[in-house]
């Protein structure tokens, strides 16, 4: 299967941080809230507002920023 469309094969807990690289291909949101994420390190984060608990955000997340993120129990999918 093409790796770009294959299901995630690894997961890791995310601690939001304004500079740490996550590099996830999607994010699972465990507790509802806002999620600030950037697809590349050199791009300002975009805030996904009021993301419900249990949502999988199918976005490349180079960074999950602490500033602007209120959601918690976030899992990075690789």
Molecular structure report:
The chain has 78 residues and is mainly beta. Helices cover 0% and strands 44% of the residues. It is built from no helices and 7 strands. The strands form 2 sheets. A 4-stranded antiparallel β-sheet has the order 1-7-2-5, with no helix packed on it. A 3-stranded antiparallel β-sheet has the order 4-3-6, with no helix packed on it. A hairpin with a 7-residue loop joins β3 (33-38) and β4. It is globular, with a radius of gyration of 12 Å. The protein starts with 10 loop residues before the first strand and ends with a strand.
Short overview:
With 78 residues, the protein is mainly β. It has strands at residues 11-14, 26-31, 33-38, 46-51, 55-57, 63-65, 72-77.
Using only C-alpha atoms, the radius of gyration works out to 12 Å
Percent of residues in helices: under 10%
| SSE topology string | EEEEEEE
Please mark out the parts with pLDDT under 50 across 5 or more consecutive residues, or reply none: none
Distance from N terminus to C terminus (CA atoms, Å) equals 15 Å
Overall geometric form: globular
Strand content: 35-45%
The major sheet is characterized as:
4 strands, antiparallel
Number of strands: 7
Number of helices: 0
Spatial ordering of strands, largest sheet: 1-7-2-5
Average pLDDT across residues? 95
């Amino acid at each position: 299967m093409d790796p770009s469309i294959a299901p995630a094969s690894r997961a890791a807990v995310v601690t939001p941080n304004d500079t740490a690289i996550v590099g996830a291909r999607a994010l699972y949101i465990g507790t509802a809230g806002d999620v600030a994420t950037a697809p590349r390190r050199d791009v300002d984060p975009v805030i996904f507002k009021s993301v419900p608990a249990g949502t999988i955000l199918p976005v490349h997340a180079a960074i999950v920023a602490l500033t602007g993120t209120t959601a918690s129990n976030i899992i990075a999918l690789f």
